Amino acid sequence: MNQPQSPRTVIERYYDEVWEKRRPDEIPSLFAAGYVNHAGARGTLSGPEGIRTNYQSLVSAFPDVRFMLDDLLVDGAKVVVRYTMYGTHLGQFQEFAPSGRQVVVPGIGIYMVKDGQIQESWVVRDSLLLIRQLNGEILATKQF
Fold it and tell me: How far is CA 67 from the centre of its chain?
């Protein structure tokens, strides 16, 4: 019988397989059926389908979206990621029509991993900075 992957490995696989390699079919193997994401302003995302919906929404709005993992800390079953999201706004995003603008947005995710799957997460990004970039108020530069 195979040992479940370490919490760190699961999170690294999530960002690499799903986001970097664009393999959303990996989502069910990474997220538990009872998974809950306490996503702040975006509401609660439940189960692998909630993650798939979030993935499709973000990729349709920012087809080149990518995440740079700036820090990754592990404490037992919890993994904390400080990331920077990069992308070009080429599709509808919430109420924002495609603008062609570049975005650079920091965020933090806290993931609870058990039995080789993500069980729960708390992920927040700087939505105000994202909106200001989409409105053309500020240029997308890494300021943090």
Answer: 8
Q: How far apart are CA 127 and CA 61, in angstroms?
A: 15
| Per-position pLDDT tens, the chain of length 144 | 577 899 999 999 999 999 999 999 999 999 999 999 887 666 677 899 999 999 999 999 999 999 999 999 999 999 999 999 999 999 999 999 999 999 999 999 999 999 999 999 999 999 999 999 999 998 877 766
35 membership: H or E segment, kind and range: strand 31-38
For residues 113 and 54, what is the distance between their CA atoms, to the nearest angstrom? 19
Backbone φ and ψ for 37, nearest 5 degrees, come out as: -110, 120
**CB-CB neighbours of 92 under 10 Å:** 12
Structure tokens at 93: 């995003």
Q: Cα angle vertex 14, ends 94, 62, to 5°?
A: 30
8 A C-beta contact, residue 119 and residue 14:
no
The token duo for 11 is 């999170």
Task: Write down the pTM of the prediction.
Answer: 0.91
Domains in the chain, ordered, with CATH? Answer: 7-134 (3.10.450.50)
